[in-house]
Amino acid sequence: MTIYIIRRVLYMIPTLIAISILSFVIIQLPPGDFLTSYVAQLRQEGDIIDESQLESLRVRYGLGEPVYVQYGKWISGIFLRGDWGQSMDWQKPVKELIWERLGLTMIISLSSLLVSWFIAIPIGVYSATHQYSILDYTMTAFSFIGLGTPGFMLALIVLFVLQNQFGMNVGGLFSEEYINAPWNWAKVVDMLKHIWVPMAIVAVNGTAGNIRITRANLLDELNKPYVETARAKGVKESKLIWKYPVRVALNPFFSTVGWSLASLVSGVTLVAVVLSLQTTGPMLLRALTTQDMYLAGSFILLLSVLTVIGTLISDILLALVDPRIRLQ
Amino acid sequence: MQRVEKSWLERADEDTPLSEQDFIEEVKGDEKIFVASYLQLMWWRFLKHKMALISAIIVILFYLVAIFAEFVAPYNPDNSFVQFKLAPPTQIHIVDTNGKLQRPFIYKTLRERDPETLRNNYVEDTETIYPIRFFVQGPEYEILGRWNATTHLFGVDAPRDEMGFFLLGADRLGRDLFSRVCYGARISLTIGLVAVVVSLVVGIVLGGVSGYYGGTIDNVIQRLIEFIRSIPEIPLIMALAAALPADLPVVQLYFGITIVLAFVGWTGLARVVRGRFLSMREEDFVMAARFAGSSEMRIILRHMMPSFLSHIIASLTLSIPGIILSETGLSFLGLGLRAPAISWGVLLQEAQNLRSVALAPWVLLPALAVILTVLAFNFLGDGIRDAADPYAK
Questions:
Q1: Mean of the per-residue pLDDT values of chain B
Q2: Residue A160 to chain B, least CA–CA distance (Å)
């Protein structure tokens, strides 16, 4: 087992390096370096430009030097000093801006994942065991709609209905008075009041797919001889279903959790823009449109790294559950 | 994940219990089946999948609309009816004020201004009736960029400045939303196809190399695919799309976005191709061809290609909806195509503002076109995949 974990972690290293290079390329994509645009912006605002300060920034990020030197300075800055670069749009170091938003994104993604499993598994099991019942058809129809409707459209529609029919304002993650407040218990409670809307929307999209997977896999398992054997031995039907075929049917779920995490983070990004949540989505969008590239690059880097780590954890869990995998 | 997700649909028809009558017919039909060609078998199998058949019709219809947008759309998508800003969808009636049944018609719409809120209210003037006619004369256009014509599929005989027929309502500038959806279909429906073709070329080359040669190359390509798949797709696409200069002409922007979408999209296809190659490499007929002295290229093109072509087509069809959704999302965020280009995502930008949605919920209607297309492609792909393997039970 230890060997398996070590091997998986080693496998991860090239991926992480590739991700960092890609993020750096994204930072470099717009023409010119950030200092030039920074200077242009300052000039436009009529600020006085401090040459010595500019020079120190130039040295710090290796601007004007070959690209690989810049990359080296950027990545070592992150590792050694925790320096993610400067956001020129917010006039703040990137590291002050990202962590809270990243945390919220992950909270919403992970809780949506759990919510969607929590809903999808029982429904999927019911659909498979009561094939062609009314509820089965209803759920199938529902899952198709969930599959065809992108999250951001669902968010728009939910926003519209809640506002129009119930007069609720569901945009954002916090009430006004808490947006800039430091974290405390009241803020958490306030967040819980708001978070269910985006969570539900993101979860619906995942749920649709998950119902289909559960139903399909379980249908495959239900006709297998071991189920018949257990039934012949007189195991209670509910215990039989949940203990044997469901467990097997859920395996592919956990093995794909890494990819679902990536798609959840994607989904949250768009939904967050529509609902103007204080997560990475809107800030990333803004950073991209204003070419605030250090901020944007850091987001891409961190979102990807977190997804890769999530995949690693899920792989390790899967190996714990299913011994066949670690032997391969 | 996508492959697992779809699998229960494949089972849809095999789950249906066979009645005795069916069974007898099936046995009788057997003889026909024994002599049928592969294509015929595929076609029969496809016909059995009712949802796929309906979806195929919908997809074809949508593409026809896209090709003949000028003819189907009653108005030019850029012309605004200044007096009908944010007008709701025009009500179609078949019973007039006297309770008599008529051919479908619309009433003239009058604009009233709310004295307090200064909002426009649109009311029907039951005095004036405009019957809905097919093949009416309207603004001139070029069909397929070649012939001039003035006939439109449907419309009303009304002076332009008095009355417009808005099947799906009008937008902020008073442009007919239905016409815009028709024209938007051009970009939204083709971007999926073009991006899929680009993904296919990359996917087949890399997936094929990976599956056919195996070993180190396979390992490297698999790592590459895993790497791209581990990055959250939307943020990556957003970043790449944002790097395209904002002032690009529409055509270049279109291809830029296509390449961005294909960059992320090829991985799925490459996996499918690789899987097929891996399983087929060991088949006896490939071995036989090799012993007979066929070149590698001939083995791939002549012997292997026909047996996985249909599967590739199925996966292609199944990957189109994802690309359409990505384009819609991108344009919705303002990172994809921008006005004056018309795509469904661009149309939905108008729905970004909650106030305009509350005021005019019909600006959400282009979403319906997106949802329908996505569902239709999903079913169609499922049907093709079922049909691709007509010998499977």
A1: 78
A2: 6
